[in-house]
Amino acid sequence: MRVAFYTLGCKLNQAETESLVSQLSQSGFQVVSPNDVADVYIANTCTVTHVADRKSRHWLRLAKRRNPQALVIATGCYAQRSRQELEGLADFVADNGEKENLLDLIQTIAFEDRTPRSCEADQPQVLAVAARTRSLIKIQDGCNGPCTYCIVPAVRPREYSLPSSQIVNEVRQKVALGYKEVVLTGTKVGSYRDSSSHLGDLLRHILRDTRIQRLRLSSLQPSEISSEFLTLWQDERLCRHFHLALQTGSEPVLRSMRRSYSLDQYAEVMDLIKANVPDAAITTDIIVGFPGESDEQFEQSHSFCRQVGFANIHVFPFSPRPGTVAEQMSGQIVDTIRKERSQRMLELSRSCRRLFGERLLGQTMSVLWEKESNPGSGIYSGLTGNYLRVFAHSEEPLTNEITPVRLVEFNRRGIVGEVVA
Q1: Rg, the chain, Cα only
Q2: Does pLDDT of 114 surpass 70?
Q3: Three-class SS state of 74
Q4: CA nearest 210: which of 239, 164, 171?
Q5: With 90 as the cut, is the pLDDT of residue 171 above it?
Q6: What are the b/e assignments for 295-311, b being 16+ CB within 10 Å?
Q7: How many CB atoms lie within 10 A of CB 188?
Q8: What would the pLDDT profile of 198-233 be if each residue is shown by its tens digit?
Q9: Which residues, in sequence order, are CB contacts of 234 under 8 Å at separation 6+?
Q10: Which of 27, 249, 393, 402 sits 20 to 30 Å CA-CA off 270?
Q11: Rounded distance, CA 354 to CA 161, Å?
Q12: Tell me, what's the pLDDT at 286?
């Protein structure tokens, strides 16, 4: 039987989908593209914004139209938050607690009244399991944070961490399967704890006891970074990319969001990273149009982001989430203003990305090549350790190779590079 996955949201969701793909593949299912005809469709949903909710509903409707006889399953955070909103669109709705048992569920009900759809005209695009480059590994789940805008504590469990021995073994398995890079992910990665061990201990363990060639962290909080922690980046296998969610560059709005740091503290951490990890890319998330955000406060946020020099900014218009404190706050910003502020912040993001990329032109960096941009083109796409998208021509296949590349030119898609012999 053919199964198609559609994943929205964070890297933790992506890691959980990757685990499900592995389980179903090993059980004999054929994993195909989410745009193909399948016997089973699984949407791993996100509910951080209303846009994510809408995308999930849209894909579930498309799945039903592609194959009305298929088993359609909705899982993830949207399914956790509002099962009833998805019950009319999916045959089964599984919350985050049921996600790990989806294989058993599918094997129980997928074959009851359904037969595998076989039609030569379908020609499904089978996903190439062999093309392994980067794997996401879940090390932690849950967040006990007080942020007023965030729905995550309501749809994810209380904070818990996986045993370090289990994580190290999983990294070893990924290496044996051919992966060159592993991304450690979770809802709040920096809160990782295993007995008396913390995230730094886990990184040391992985670097010491596995042969993984590149190790990346998905996201951190400013309070989780110290000079001692940054000494780990003396090992070149640790990717020089730090994602630190700022959310706003206005002090009053930051307090209204109940974030756990001040702008001065955030800027100090950025300076600390730049001093200890040269050429590190620091990326962030920014919410615009938070309730009560004045024009002046938006300008403060825009100015702060411009001054500190991010490598990239992910921009989110505020989206009121049911049951959160921010949903009930006064001073809700109208859509037109949110959109205007989003556009201005996106323009700044493009500028930051260009300035960071151009500053590195002429340097030689290692790139993990992912795939050929277009089959037969000889143009390959990959990422540097500090998360720059690089394109280069090669007569030899580069997929899943790590090679030195000289950075030559910046364009809107990324960096044009030359593979160094």
Answers
A1: 22
A2: no
A3: strand
A4: 171
A5: yes
A6: eebbebbbebbeebebb
A7: 21
A8: 999 999 999 999 999 999 999 999 999 999 999 999
A9: none
A10: 402
A11: 37
A12: 98
